[in-house]
């Protein structure tokens, strides 16, 4: 493995397969926050402590080579260029906080990119596991497997009453943040999301944009995750989230069926207008590209478009982000240059897919 592999391949290996309800649920993510006993939290620790933790992580990556998830590649954040860090954020392999604010941060990445262990982010260790579709229990099982490996090598900060100790009080307890990434274009088009989001919040869950807290819901893609980590078991957190997500999936499917039934020609027109923009534009901004890609994916899921796969939309959602575009181009681009490059890349990728499938 190499840094270039993580930077140059838009779609992670795990994204190429489909999971349960993957027409609506793009991914399931489990993140465990852990800290080490006898070390200050990252907000207060010294550079020496930070470097010591990075050294521990590197040693672990070198030792754990025979697991079924393969070898973990070790990358030090300080050694990465700004553009390289941005690409890793766009691929959800590291958090914006680790990219921007980490002191002597690092990350351990699996070859399939379904495992990411961040070092010296908000907490000493953040274990992240990603699965396609609705597979929260499977992701939790994998995360707990990694957690057990680490716990055998380091001494966690743990309190018998409070649970795992974390930098942010909202993570104390299980330290578990479970989330799903969902594509909800029909609920947006039928103006139901403004009603659904407050209802979700009242259940102790939170709805965020594509890159988490403070980010925008580009392309009608949202993250839904738990807010409560203290006083509930991992099983209860997962089951509560699955229950709500399944209801949202049912509402999205009902909204899609209603659109097809009551506004068929309008929906078909919207889908193919967006496809036409993607296939022929010479300049396109991130937001417009994301909206058009969302429409085209809806067209695939509802059967209007039959010569494209969902995977190409997953790929283009990442490939057209500013950081990845510049990585693809081989260097920094001005905003207008990015918009031109984005349009060209989308056109080329769609033509390649049409030739491969024999589509019109």
Task: Write a short abstract of this structure.
This is Protein-arginine kinase. With 360 residues, the chain is an alpha+beta fold.
Question: What can you see in these coordinates?
Answer:
This protein has 360 residues and is α+β, with helices and mostly antiparallel strands. The chain is 48% helix and 15% strand. It is built from 13 helices and ten strands. It has helices at 3-8, 47-63, 82-90, 96-101, 136-151, 185-189, 193-202, 234-262, 264-280, 286-301, 310-319, 322-329, 335-357; strands spanning 25-34, 72-76, 106-110, 115-119, 125-132, 158-159, 163-164, 176-183, 205-208, 221-226. The strands form two sheets. An eight-stranded antiparallel beta sheet has the order 2-3-4-5-1-8-10-9, covered by helices on one side. A two-stranded antiparallel ribbon has the order 6-7. A hairpin with a 3-residue loop joins strand 6 (158-159) and strand 7. Helix 3 (82-90) crosses helix 12 (322-329) and helix 10 (286-301) runs antiparallel to helix 11. The radius of gyration is 21 Å and the shape is globular. InterPro entries: Arg_Kinase, ATP-guanido_PTrfase, ATP-guanido_PTrfase_AS, ATP-guanido_PTrfase_cat, Gln_synth/guanido_kin_cat_dom.
């Amino acid at each position: 493995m190499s840094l270039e592999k993580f930077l140059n391949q838009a779609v992670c290996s795990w994204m190429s397969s489909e999971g349960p309800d993957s027409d609506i649920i793009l991914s399931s993510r489990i993140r465990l926050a852990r800290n080490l006993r006898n070390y200050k939290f990252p907000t207060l620790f010294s550079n020496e402590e930070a470097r010591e933790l990075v050294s521990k992580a590197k040693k672990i990556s070198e030792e754990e080579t025979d697991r079924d998830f393969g070898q973990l590649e070790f990358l030090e954040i300080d050694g990465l260029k700004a553009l390289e860090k941005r690409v890793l954020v766009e691929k959800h392999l590291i958090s914006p906080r680790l990219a921007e604010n980490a002191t002597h941060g690092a990350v351990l990445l699996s070859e399939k990119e379904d495992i990411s262990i961040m070092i010296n982010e908000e907490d000493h260790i953040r274990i992240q596991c990603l699965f396609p579709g609705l597979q929260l229990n499977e992701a939790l099982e994998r995360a707990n497997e990694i957690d057990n490996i680490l716990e055998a090598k380091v001494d966690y900060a743990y309190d018998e009453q409070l649970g795992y100790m974390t930098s942010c009080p909202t993570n104390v307890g299980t330290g578990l943040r479970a989330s799903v990434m969902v594509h909800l274009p029909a609920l947006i088009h039928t103006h139901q999301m403004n009603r659904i989001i407050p209802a979700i919040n009242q259940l102790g869950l939170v709805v965020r944009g594509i890159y988490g807290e403070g980010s925008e819901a580009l392309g009608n893609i949202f993250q839904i995750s738990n807010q409560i980590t203290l006083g509930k078991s991992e099983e209860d957190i997962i089951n509560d989230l699955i229950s709500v997500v399944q209801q949202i999936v049912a509402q999205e499917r009902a909204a899609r069926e209603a659109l097809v039934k009551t506004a068929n020609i309008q929906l078909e027109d919207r889908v193919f207008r967006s496809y036409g923009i993607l296939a022929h534009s010479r300049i396109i901004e991130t937001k417009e590209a994301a909206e058009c890609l969302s429409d085209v994916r809806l067209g695939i899921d509802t059967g209007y478009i039959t010569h494209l796969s969902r995977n190409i939309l997953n790929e283009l959602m990442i490939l057209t982000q500013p950081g990845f575009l510049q990585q693809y181009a081989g260097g920094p681009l001005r905003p207008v240059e990015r918009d031109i490059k984005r349009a060209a890349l989308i056109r080329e990728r769609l033509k390649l897919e049409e030739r491969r499938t024999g589509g019109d």
